Amino acid sequence: DAGITQSPRHKVTETGTPVTLRCHQTENHRYMYWYRQDPGHGLRLIHYSYGVKDTDKGEVSDGYSVSRSKTEDFLLTLESATSSQTSVYFCAISLLGGESSVHNEQFFGPGTRLTVL
Amino acid sequence: KQEVTQIPAALSVPEGENLVLNCSFTDSAIYNLQWFRQDPGKGLTSLLLIQSSQREQTSGRLNASLDKSSGRSTLYIAASQPGDSATYLCAVRGGTVDNDMRFGAGTRLTVK
After folding, report:
1. Which chain A positions have a beta carbon within 8 Å of B108's beta carbon?
2. Under DSSP, is residue A103 helix (H, G, I), strand (E, B) or coil?
3. Choosing among A10, A30, A101, A107, which should be mutated to test the B contact, i.e. which has the most B CBs within 10 A?
4. Integer Cα distance of A21 and A23 in angstroms
5. For residue B51, which of A12, B58, B83, B92 sits 20 to 30 Å off, Cα-Cα?
6. Which string of b and e fits A5-20 if b means at least 16 CB within 10 Å?
7. Which of B51, B89, B103 sits opposite A104 (nearest CB)?
């Protein structure tokens, strides 16, 4: 299994509170991603990072911010959580580049289940 | 915008049957396509990745094919087992290496 951990694994919070989810990898992969998974929508990309301090928006980035100060850590922050952000959040990593499948495969963490009341 | 569709949404088969899962995508200018397995309450496990220049990939009882021109991929599972029961997702990365992946909603497979 790829060395990806997410913390916390479960969190219940109230509307309007800030929440930070952490993704940690031990693979030294360049690319890191945050997705959310919701019934009826599948997985959707929130933000991704292509290097330390290099990030970009995904399909559903509104209400979320990210930071990557070290290769191994990628943080997802909900500045003021809303009930619509109740979801399962997955972190993923990949090397990317070149024609090698080894480099382009995306690996996922175990997920964080977030409930916003 | 790339749209990825997986049909059927659910499939039930008897043990030992060979089966095919389908994935279709609207934009043929893809970088690669990846098949995943997801067990209930768990993360995604990568099964196979096909680069845009490849036609198929095989791993054990699994074989994935890619036909970019028709916007289709199939995942073939031979001699299905109860342990194969899970949701299978396909995901397509767009035309450049930095493009994000678009996921299908998945096919929930039950092997009885």
Report:
1. none
2. helix
3. A101
4. 7
5. B83
6. ebeeeebebeeeeebe
7. B51
